[in-house]
Amino acid sequence: MWSLIECVPENDTDTLAGVVADVRLAEVLTALLAAIRAAHGTDRVEFEALGAALWAQCGPGDTAAPVITIMLEGED
Known about the structure:
Elements (H helix, E strand, L loop, with lengths): L1 H5 L10 H22 L5 E6 L2 E9 L5 E7 L4
């Protein structure tokens, strides 16, 4: 999924790669936030961003604190 965020369009020679990555990450997080707000009583949401089907799940991380994992549809 991260490769979708870091992808710089070939015809975009004037934009810094970091700016493009920031904008793409913001698009993913905005779509995720909308999906979370629309979901009720679940720890998993499906959404679309950057022209791809994505899903995210909230669960315990290494220290048992909640973390959100975002993946492409079909990834586990």
